[in-house]
Amino acid sequence: MNFKINNKRSNSYTEFYSILNYIYENLMKAINIVLSKPHHELIKDRRVCKYQSLKNTSMDTIKWLEKRPHLLEYIDGRNIPTQALQVTKKVTLDTKENRFLKFMIITIIHKIDSFIRTYTSTPWKKNEDIINKLNTMKKAINNKLKTSFLKDVGSDYRNTSMSLVFNMASGYREIYKYYLMLQKGLSINSNIFSLSMKELSLLYEYWCFIKINSLLRKRYKLISTDFITINRGGIFVSLKKGVTSTLVYENPNTKETFKVSYNAIKSRKVSNIGSRTEGSKTVTQKPDNMLSINKLGSDKAYEFVFDAKYKIDTSIEYQKSYGGIGPKEEDINTMHRYRDAHSI
């Protein structure tokens, strides 16, 4: 199951508002991070000045004079230049990355303006709360632009190629991700809607994994995930049968961690007993979903297996044996096998 950024030029206003409403607070946090630690470059400022105004010399100064010997005058036994090149180094924030950052923020502001104009021009009744909320968002973003170093950054971003700053630098990475989401929206690019009845169990596995994580997100902080990637093509969220995917949560009060794994591989255990090696009585297991809880002060993780089982046995023989319909015996045996793999 894959989700990615649309390749269309823009998304609908409804989609834009929904995404903006969802990511706005994180967008502002990312902007604040950038403003506190902006990307910068060290540049050389070169200018020709009179000799008496020359503050320091460098190899650049000497090389410049070697090409212009006519500027040297012999005075009191010394060659004194009438003019010389002075090179000073200074830090600049007017980088190609910051110019593109400014462009992204301005584009978001223009998109909000366009949404407000379109919404207010419609014939039906307007929701003033939506208009006021958008105006508040626009004002806050615009204030960041007008009261920071970005106001002095150039607007020419056309020669800007994507750099590692937007892939790795804190703040820049998040703003670029949100910009892509607001510009193009999200779409599902898998065949999830063409699953046959034979693949219904796979869809149920996905649902169980998503549901477990949605419950944990209500109380705990997500600190890492290994199946969300961002590249030049956009944002990709992949959940694939047979490939282990993991999300790690943290309890903000106790700092204990919770790990939810999809298709986690549980290898055979090997232990030394005396002089012989003894392995687990079960082979390598791969349950659908596994929740691991690491408690403070304990070396062991508490592991809970959630395996998607939805089939029931309605046969007469089964009802005679167990007094009614219920889960298939092979499914129960599978759960016992998972337990044995964890406990042996």
From TrEMBL:
DUF2357 domain span: 4-179
Record key words, sorted: Endonuclease, Hydrolase, Nuclease
Record bears the keyword DNA repair: no
GO MF assignments: endonuclease activity
A Pfam family per the record: DUF2357
InterPro entries: DUF2357 (IPR018633), PDDEXK_7 (IPR007505)
Protein name: Restriction endonuclease-like protein
Record's keyword annotation contains Nuclease: yes
